[in-house]
Amino acid sequence: MSNKRNNNKVEYLRNYDEIVKLSSQGLDISAIYNKLVEEGKIAMNFQSFGYYYKGYYAYTDSRSKKKRGSKTTDEVLKHKDEILSLINQGYPISYVYKTLKKSGKYSYGRVSFYLVLKRLGIKRVEVPNID
After folding, report:
1. For residue 5, what pLDDT is reported?
2. Between the CA of residue 64 and those of 10, 25, 38, 45, 71, what are the distances in Å?
3. pLDDT digits (tens, 9 = 90+) for 74-90
4. DSSP codes joined into one string, 95-112
């Protein structure tokens, strides 16, 4: 059984570049499988193909999602002066987020905004009370 599984894996990896290309064209998993079977490039069953497709393609897909973090960081850095100005004036980070979101200067979610600020070391400044 493991020898057959290993052959399926080799078969899948041999055609990996074409699978990625077909997937980027918008074809779903069954269309990709059928095309490769028709061309005689793979002989494994659909269940095995799906196992490798979800495993390997999810891995590359998750790597590409990491790029999103850099986009959120870029948006924060683009408006860093405004963010620091509001924080130094004593506004809470939630207010800063809502202000940027409403003005269209930040397009990602609240949690992403908080995580980027934390990663950059930007914290709310405690303003002393003057009594």
Report:
1. 59
2. 24, 17, 30, 28, 12
3. 888 888 889 989 988 88
4. HHHHHHHHTTS--S-HHH
User: Tokens 């999810």 belong to which residue?
Assistant: 58
Predicted TM-score (pTM) of the model is 0.45
First to last CA, the chain: 78
**Whose CA is closest to 86, among 62, 48, 40, 117?**
117
> CB within 8 A of 15, min separation 6: which ones?
36, 41, 42
Q: Give the confidence band of 128 by pLDDT, cuts at 50, 70, 90.
A: low
How far is 1 from 43, CA to CA, in rounded Å?
15
Question: Measured on CA atoms in the order 101, 106, 110, 116, is the torsion positive or negative?
Answer: negative
Query: Would you say residue 7 has pLDDT above 90?
Result: no
Q: Given the structure tokens 């078969």, which residue do they identify? A: 11
Two structure tokens written together for 100 = 């940027």
